[in-house]
Amino acid sequence: MEPLSFQEYICSLDPATLPRVLRICSGVYFQGSVYEISGNECCLSTGDLLKVMAVALQKVICEDTKSGHTTELPPTFKGLFQPAPAPEPYPAPQGPLLKGSRQRGLTLHQVLGRWDGRPQPLLCPTISPHVLLLHPVYEVHAAMHLRRDVVKIPSTLEVDVKDVTEEAQHIHFAQPLLLSEVLGMEEALPTQAEILDGPAGPAIFESAWVPQLRRGQRLQLHGRSHDWRVLASAPGSGRHFLLSSAYQGRFRRRPRQFTRVQELAAGLRPGQQLRVVVTQDCEGWGDDVPPLGVGDRLEARGLQGNGPGTRLVCYRHGGEEEEEEGEELLLPLDLGGSFVEEACDSKKYGLAELLEQQPLPCEVRVVAADPGLERDALGALPALRLEACLDQPFLVGSFCEEPEEGFEIPPQWLDFSLLLSEGPVHPLAPCTRRSRVEELTEAFYYRLLAQLPGSPAPPPPRPPKPAQAGTGPGGRHPSAPRPLVPSPLPVSTRLAPPLPPLPALPRLSTPSRYSWRGPPGDAGCALPSLPGTESDSAEHDYETVDGNIEKTTRKMQAIFPF
Questions:
Q1: Which long-range contacts (CB under 8 A, 24 or more apart) does 261-267 make?
Q2: What is the pTM of this model?
Q3: Domain extents for the chain?
Q4: pLDDT confidence band for 560 (50 / 70 / 90)
């Protein structure tokens, strides 16, 4: 067939013959990098192929031949049409439109169903007493090569097309997929794929393989990973990590710290003791709650009561003398304080074993690096805070040029489009090494932290500070006289600059019964200790200034009397 305008072809198309394959004979391009306008495709190049899947009527432009006025009719228009003598230069209609149509009117869809490719003159008293011409506008749903979704093209797009359905039977329209869609197609894995568009948006991993996920790169997708992950941070360093459950490093527990009695109660676990040492004096609440002193050793045993009157039952151990007895305390949950766990645990744990015995969050130290990693970044950290477990699905992948170097991609966080290989896939090279520790970017870490259950909502923005009425910059009224600026003094009469203040001198206090030494290193022990040989009393509660400083101060005051 000869090329036709897209509008002419679609108007004469029989929907029963779909799908049809069309070739663009003369393309159209709207300048700019926008490929869609109002959801419709508006950029078609000469030679492109379209596979028309469906045609939907959008509207009908109704033209009054006498006045030239146009009206848009919706597809649900209920009026009836009658054939009318065609005005010049249109010939009188011939064919099925006149057969039987003088006895009764035709609906809008009946008129369009008998379309012969040209607008025909009609009468519709509902619209106008004059002769009308109908111009339908369709939305064409088509598939294109390397396009993920069905494209929507208006039939009025000014392109010429040619029907090539018969000679295009062998043509396959490759449909790209998102990595998140491949995640649910386990029957298609393992396979090879080509990246069409790399990940968009800011990076989430500080890893060398992430920048290689770019257009044209070929991947081997091995399958779905069944490992779970742990979100972790290195306190004081600003570094954040995602640990795989396949991580083979060994951990040692560090003592937990608590700032409220309520945190102590939350740290209780069935069948486990929780012993802590008080690291800060805490005033009591009358006769019911005695004060707590630095070095007091408490054993949290359980809760008593419910509601606002709930108390934590604790046993305060006596001193190191055997004759000193302990006492039972009932501490309110909203009582503040400072406590550190009294833990002596030198055992080395694997990740899964650690989480079975230690609730999150908790602090640990890596005492044995993962032997399967060339460089374990966690081994050099003094402490690691394990924050939460994540059960996010990952895909195991590798680059075709380095199939043994594997990595695991979270499609929900790192999605991109790719094209799966066609036909049977040869056996993939085995993936022998995988990344078990991924360092997160700071922005993604905080975004991920905000999505965890129980995360507090971000605070509302602070309102701008209102300016005082009638005041200008610096709080001075605009009409107030400017302050007089004194002229500079002669050199001989200028005052010397004031001396810098002396450093604050620490006050000495009577040492308490115990002093806190903090948790030791690898052993993870946190035990109170006696203060040693420090004196229990002092003649003064202050220190004297060094004699040389006093002499210097007196000389300066004699030279600059102020």
A1: 261/312, 261/331, 261/332, 261/333, 261/334, 261/335, 261/336, 261/337, 262/333, 262/334, 264/300, 264/312, 264/314, 264/331, 264/339, 265/300, 265/303, 265/312, 265/333, 267/300, 267/341, 267/359
A2: 0.58
A3: 4-168, 180-228+392-435
A4: very low
